[in-house]
Amino acid sequence: MIKMKQTIQEALHWASLFLKEHGREEKVAEIILMDLLAVSRLEFLMRLPEELSVSDGTRFKDLIQTHATTGVPVQHLTGKETFYERSFNVTKDTLVPRQETEELVYYLLEKLAKRPELTDVVDVGTGTGILAITLALENDALNLTAVDISEAALAVAAMNAKKLQADVAFCHSDFLQALKEENHQVDVIVSNPPYIPYSDLEKLQDTVKNFDPHLALFSEEDGLYSYRQIITQAKDVLRPHGLLAFEIGYNQARAVTALIKEAFPHAVIETKQDMFGKDRMVFADVCV
């Protein structure tokens, strides 16, 4: 139990033990406490011997107990997550950004640097806007459009774009349908779509299955429905010699490659692994 008066270090020690007892990651304590105190990691370490106010101690205890006993993600408690060294707002209406997705951005930027003629990019299923916003900020030659079927997610993404001063256009759309209807063509389609089969629901951690929006997680047809829709619509939206860039499930490379080949027989397709050595990204240079 947290004492009424304690140092920051004492509060951190209590929280770490409490989280460990409940099978949660101990580092969550530091993340929550740094956010509560609004300090950098260096400032946090320097202030460890200082006394924690009663109000901050009470709030910290409540947040730790909530996370430990319910599994609510720490990002929902703090309302933000870091992606590509930038802070993004996160809500219950958006998927919590994953570290692996940073690799999709990195490799796509690498490819676009070699093909500067590809400037018009659409991010399908933008969620918090991490892909579109990061691409826009990392390469100011790009014209970004971000689409999502969730108006609540689009509102979060627009808020993030405004906060980070990123020039991104937002559009409510079921995959690429709105662009298709407007005859809007692009050079690049990038997406981290829902790709988890519903059959995997019970295998997921409670922090994911109970709190991330299922609309952003799960897909029909063994997780391939989203890819099938995007790739089919891409035939009307993607310009000749354009580029497809997908995040995928670790066991979906062959199936996604087959879907691309079916729609674009002459595409040059590359699968890349993530930091854990798992298939995680598929890139396709499309020759129409």
TrEMBL record:
EC no. given is: 2.1.1.297
First-tier enzyme category under EC = transferase
The Methyltransferase small domain sits at 108-195
Recorded hits in Pfam families, A to Z, give: MTS, PrmC_N
Binding-site residues, S-adenosyl-L-methionine: G125, T126, G127, T128, G129, D148, F175, N192
> Could you state a single Gene Ontology molecular function term?
peptide chain release factor N(5)-glutamine methyltransferase activity
What the entry lists under Gene3D superfamilies is as follows: DNA helicase RuvA subunit, C-terminal domain (1.10.8.10), Vaccinia Virus protein VP39 (3.40.50.150)
Q: Which UniProt keywords apply?
A: Methyltransferase, S-adenosyl-L-methionine, Transferase
Tell me which family the UniProt entry assigns to this protein: Belongs to the protein N5-glutamine methyltransferase family. PrmC subfamily.
Which HAMAP family would you find in this protein's record?
Answer: RF_methyltr_PrmC (MF_02126)
Q: What is this protein called?
A: Release factor glutamine methyltransferase
Q: Which organism is it from?
A: Halolactibacillus alkaliphilus
